[in-house]
Fold this sequence. Notes:
With 441 residues, the protein is an alpha/beta fold. It has 16 helices and 14 strands. The chain has helices spanning 37-41, 47-52, 73-91, 100-103, 110-129, 158-178, 200-221, 245-254, 267-272, 277-286, 313-325, 348-373, 376-384, 391-397, 403-411, 423-438; strands at residues 11-12, 22-23, 31-32, 35-36, 43-46, 95-99, 134-139, 182-185, 191-192, 226-229, 239-240, 261-266, 290-294, 334-336. The strands form 4 sheets. Strands 5-6-7-8-10-12-13-14 form an 8-stranded parallel barrel, surrounded by 4 helices. It has a two-stranded parallel sheet with strand order 1-2. Helix 5 packs parallel to helix 6 (158-178), helix 10 (277-286) runs parallel beside helix 11 and helix 11 (313-325) crosses helix 12. It starts with 10 loop residues before the first strand and ends with a helix.
Amino acid sequence: MAYFQEIGSIKYEGLQSTNPFAFKFYNPEEKIGDKTAEEHLRFAVAYWHTFTGDGSDPFGAGTMERSWNRLKGMDLAKARLEAAFEFFEKLNVPYFCFHDVDIAPEGSNLRETNKNLDTIVGLMKDYMKDSETKLLWNTANNFTHPRFIHGAASSSNADVFAYAAAKIKKGLEIGKELGAENYVFWGGREGYETLLNTDMKLELDNLGRFFHMAVDYAKEIGFDGQFLIEPKPKEPTTHQYDFDVASGYAFLQNYDLQDHFKFNIEANHATLAGHSFEHELHYARIHNMLGSVDANQGHPLLGWDTDEFPTDLYSATLAMYEIIKNGGLGRGGLNFDAKVRRGSFKPEDLFHAHIAGMDSFAIGLKVAQKLIDDNVLKNVLEDRYSSYTEGIGLDIVQGKTDFHKLEEHALGLTEITNKSGRLENIKAILNQYLLKAYAGE
């Protein structure tokens, strides 16, 4: 059965195209720097928002028109799978991602749930044999069901800890079977509301133990996918243990896990943490911890995780700058953890949204590469920090000084002259590069 019958293969047609089902900027075969655009961007479709999202919100019922939604249970799961691979093929996307409960319904017990997963994974494996779309990463949903009300690996209930571990075990087995390039841990309930009833030390220690068990089991079964932690602040718990990259990195170091994990960084989660997207990417990059990206954006007027498709060219450019400087994303990619708006309920809106996001990051890639080729920001930094390339500054960097020598230097200063940060000029230059890209220069 065809679920998107009236839509053909999405191709690159260039800036002048008025075809709403064509890429204007994303040409997967275009060489940018030392890679093609497809190799740089490694786009992925998020199974949950695209095929299971119904458009419901706290104030209203679902609005999405999806022909597969007339079905139930395993029939629904099989129809979604068929629709998914039709969508992947028509969008020409190289990767997809999913949670376990996205692809198969939970049963009345864990054995039944695993049986459902085995059925769908077997079918998915058959689809993948005839498809160029591969699995970027999979993960386990250890946050939606009421059993996870107090958390999963950080739960106050040891039975829940065991149940969560069993789900991760199954997820790693699925990842190996399907050739997943990564495995993501998002601690949706790993946090707390108040210290009045929380043993934080025990919960963090248990979380560390949990991750070590996952590392050990991956080695046992020969699963070599990169482990990724996805930070998120504020919601659903008041104090998330994986608040941002910095707190996540401190956790990994404290529990001797830093050699086994990198970060999957989501734009909307960064802004909820009070950071810019590029800040989180940069922090991960300079610590060699940047693994993959969930490409979306939040609404500037709303204080929750709105998961909009990314269309902010400024943000996409600065994100791609960090990714290129990182040497790419390795085994990671740009996963569209984004959903069409509740009012965009037609099936074709799924294509429009992904086209917009893919074109936005294609522009960001081109501009970022040009900024790097022209040494624009490199020159800015070299000029601003030039005092550390000679004299007392060089001694500081090389560790050849101490407080005594620094005091002697400071006492001899008659005047301190600072350089302007020139922020407005730098932003104007960035705008100039963006407009040149738009003009095709």
